[in-house]
């Protein structure tokens, strides 16, 4: 589907396609108007029920893809030391994200934090610790654990958030810790709108051309177990609430040109279409025995264009008493002799396999994932639990063992599909993986192409 639009010209100067971020010159005249919006609907949720909020945007200008959602958490007064997981930050609070125009859903992503964790692994460690740690709460970064008295010899590596270890324990910065006895000092973080909705990675919404209400809906994790991680020794299953007064949407509305360029753009494009991607999550309950013996799961997606899939095998029982929480990705087990459990992977659709022979090597799986997404900035030990020399340290992070909480916890599988539109039988996942006991969920994110059509102010959305 082509995204080419009819661009009006005036005085020999062509008006750029304001919808496509890459086509707007960096020196083009623009004005930015910022609104700090309150949610029109808010529910805190409970110990077994999800929280929820809805924001409604104004129909003016273009919505900047880098508008922000502000979030802050307030633990129970008995909880004095809690923090966000290093690979998710404040994103671990969000369970589902929906972008709606009228009653049409543009982007809808369930288990959003799991996808966010995969995408976050593509950010460099330096960027995490120097920037994201303060903006989003993500701080997955590594450094050597040098032997005492040496500046060159290290027996391994561990997490590094910029602070020095106290003996063998790395702690969260004082400003990043959430203390229920000092709720006013709990930090506030942001989530970028383009991280919530893939549509906004490459497009801007022309709000002034839409005659329907535009809303953002977020579903939050229940108040216990999964909103934050807790330091060793803290009481478990205490409620952590979202600070209502700090939950806001910072909406940046962009206005282009010095005169009537936006009006002429709207008149020239009363009927326009553009393609984008969305993610459909497919979750199957399973166990280590079934995965070790091999499973075949139909992922659906019949008659759709699916560029890629992302697969994880997770322990949902990992909660606030771990470093990463429930959004983990377990690799095949490695025994004491360094021998890896059985691993086989393939994708079948349109009556053919994506790979002529099963992928049976985790190093090759890493390469395939890199070709599909990009290079994940995690170590070999974290990816496949196969580190031999220089493994993750046995030191702790907030009292939690790093090696047992990180080794083999980032095994992201991903494939770029090359056989065109999926046929009526859908996509089949063939997977054999000798994962550890306790793995109970197979989670697959299927990226598929959709088309949005804006005709005289009314939006239509359908699958490509």
Descriptive account of the structure:
The protein is mainly β. 14% of the residues lie in helices and 36% in strands. The protein contains 9 helices and 31 strands. It has helices at 112-120, 125-135, 193-196, 199-202, 261-268, 288-293, 362-372, 380-384, 402-406; strands at residues 9-10, 13-14, 30-37, 41-43, 51-57, 62-63, 68-75, 82-83, 94-101, 104-110, 142-146, 154-159, 169-170, 188-192, 205-206, 214-220, 229-230, 240-242, 248-256, 271-285, 295-300, 308-314, 343-349, 352-353, 391-392, 396-397, 400-401, 413-416, 427-433, 441-455, 458-463. Strand 23 and strand 24 (352-353) form a beta hairpin. The radius of gyration is 23 Å and the shape is globular. The model is unreliable at 1-12 (pLDDT under 50).
The CA-CA distance between the termini, in Å, is: 8 Å
Number of strands: 31
Structural class: mainly beta
Give the DSSP E fraction (strand runs of 2 or more residues): 35-45%
Q: How many alpha or pi helices?
A: 9
* Low-pLDDT stretches: 1-12
* Oligomeric organization of the protein chains: single chain
What would the average pLDDT be, to the nearest integer?
92
Question: What's the gyration radius in Å?
Answer: 23 Å
**Could you estimate the helical fraction of the residues in percent?**
10-25%
């Amino acid at each position: 589907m082509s995204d080419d639009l009819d661009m009006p010209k005036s005085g020999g100067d062509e008006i750029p396609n304001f919808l496509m971020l890459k086509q707007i010159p960096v020196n083009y005249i623009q004005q930015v108007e910022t609104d700090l919006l309150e949610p029109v609907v808010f529910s805190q949720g409970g110990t077994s029920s999800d929280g929820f909020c809805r924001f409604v945007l104004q129909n003016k200008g273009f919505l900047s893809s880098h508008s922000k959602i502000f979030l802050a958490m307030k633990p129970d007064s008995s909880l004095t030391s809690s923090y966000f997981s290093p690979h998710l930050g404040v994103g671990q609070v969000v369970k589902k994200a929906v972008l709606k125009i009228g009653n049409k859903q543009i982007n809808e992503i369930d288990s959003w934090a799991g996808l966010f964790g995969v995408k976050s692994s593509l950010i460099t460690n330096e960027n995490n610790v120097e920037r994201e740690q303060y903006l989003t709460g993500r701080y997955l970064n590594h450094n050597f654990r040098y032997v005492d008295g040496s500046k060159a010899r290290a027996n391994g590596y561990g997490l590094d958030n910029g602070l020095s270890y106290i003996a063998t324990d790395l702690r969260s910065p004082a400003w990043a810790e959430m203390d229920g006895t000092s709720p006013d000092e709990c930090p506030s973080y942001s989530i970028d709108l383009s991280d919530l909705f893939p549509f906004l990675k490459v497009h801007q919404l022309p709000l002034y051309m839409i005659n329907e209400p535009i809303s953002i809906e977020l579903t939050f994790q229940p108040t216990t177990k999964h909103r934050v991680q807790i330091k060793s020794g803290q009481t478990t299953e205490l409620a952590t609430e979202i600070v209502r007064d700090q939950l806001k949407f910072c909406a940046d509305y962009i206005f282009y040109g010095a005169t009537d360029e936006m009006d002429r753009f709207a008149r020239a494009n009363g009927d326009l279409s553009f393609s984008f991607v969305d993610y459909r999550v497919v979750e199957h309950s399973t166990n280590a025995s079934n995965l070790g013996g091999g499973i075949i799961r139909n992922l659906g997606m019949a008659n759709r264009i699916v560029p890629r899939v992302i697969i994880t095998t997770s322990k949902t029982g990992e909660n606030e008493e771990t470093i990463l929480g429930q959004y983990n990705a377990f690799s095949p087990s490695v025994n004491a002799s360094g021998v890896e459990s059985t691993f086989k992977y393939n994708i079948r659709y349109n009556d053919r396999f994506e790979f002529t022979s099963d992928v049976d090597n985790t190093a090759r799986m890493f390469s395939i994932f890199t070709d599909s997404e990009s290079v994940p900035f995690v170590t070999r030990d974290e990816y496949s639990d196969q580190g031999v020399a220089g493994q993750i340290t046995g030191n702790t992070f907030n009292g939690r063992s790093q090696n047992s909480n990180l080794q083999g916890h980032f095994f992201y599988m991903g494939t770029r599909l090359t056989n065109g539109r999926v046929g009526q039988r859908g996509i089949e996942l063939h997977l054999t993986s000798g994962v550890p006991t306790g793995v109970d969920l197979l989670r697959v994110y299927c990226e598929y192409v959709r088309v949005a059509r804006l005709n005289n102010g009314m939006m239509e959305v359908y699958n490509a």
